[in-house]
Amino acid sequence: MKPFKNRKIEYDKPILAYRKLYKNSTKVLYSLKQNGLVVAHSDVFTLYNCKTIINKGGQKRCRETGVRNVHAFIWGYLPENMWEFSDYYYKVHYNPMVDDNFWVSSIDGHKEGEKIPFGKCLFTTFTPTGVYV
Hints:
mainly beta; 1 helix; 133 residues; two-stranded antiparallel sheet
């Protein structure tokens, strides 16, 4: 995890995490925002006690203009002692042009490819290949 502008993470306060948007790049990096400021960037980390947040105004602007903007976040707490999960269960998806919620697919008891809305979970892991719950 790379601190941004030498800012410190307060582990007892929640983090807003979102995918950093790059023009013409396949690089995946996430921004971690706390108290209204970006405090770090990372490609691999885990948050706990998570929930999703979608700013509907930003989503509407994205759909109207066709231009991506930062309006969707996963809110949670960053553990003070970093650990990695080797067991990823379900990949989280969100396309602002067509989806109203974050969603996962292929959960036991549901049809293959069915979009199951995702709102809260205990752990969310961010990796270069995607976000997993």
